[in-house]
Amino acid sequence: MTIILYDINSTLADKIWNPNASKARLCLNFKGIPFTTEWIEHPNIGHCSQKIGPSPTAKKPDGSPLYTVPFNHDTSMGAAIADSILIAEYLEKPYPGIPKIFPNSTAGLQSTFNDVFLANLGTLLAVTYHKMMPYLNSAAVAYMAAIVERVRSKNRTEDWMKLKDDMSKIEGWYIRNGGIGSARSHPGPTSWSRAGSFLKGMHWERIVRIGKI
Ligand SMILES: N[C@@H](CCC(=O)N[C@@H](CS)C(=O)NCC(=O)O)C(=O)O
Fold first, then answer.
1. Is 113 within 8 Å of 188 (Cβ atoms)?
2. Confidence at residue 211, expressed as pLDDT on a 0 to 100 scale
3. Which of 16, 42, 58, 133 is the right S-S partner for 66, CB 3.0 to 4.6 Å?
4. Out of the domains of life, which is the source (predicted)?
């Protein structure tokens, strides 16, 4: 297996900031599968995907296909897969014996958790984007600003309150689980925690605190 992981470039020293791509990276490292990373610019994701071959993962508001990172290219098999959860499932198949990303047939359950977890972070980008901008390459700034324009409401306080409610809900799931996530599960929350630590000194402390106010 020869894997190339496609991720978005940044101005950070190790370039890693994108939480969705970090999920795929964590899975590759967790299973000990060697891979290289191809850093691409945010506005070029569609162009690059059409060249390499992964399917779109969603639709844009105008109905046209939305291509996203992460996607991986297994050059030995000629397979290209987009979407962090589908990448995790792809990696599981040829190496069933080494640490499992989805133990005890939990792929469906974890996939559902991943969707619901992300759906509850809807306004995180809206309240943090302006602090993120310095870490984006110049090519990505205008592109990202247009995405943010689509997801934020006219009222910043409203976005904060929605985030507070959503994160309180997520906190509730963890409390019911004894205050922790599953010790062995797809690393969605872990990758967002990494994004969170990247936001440290910006809004992250407020986001963490907000569920306790
Ligand atoms: N469900 C997908 C979501 C991936 C996603 O939304 N990626 C964003 C970057 S974090 C992206 O590539 N967006 C491209 C765009 O909005 O044009 C996954 O888990 O991989």
1. yes
2. 37
3. 58
4. Eukaryota
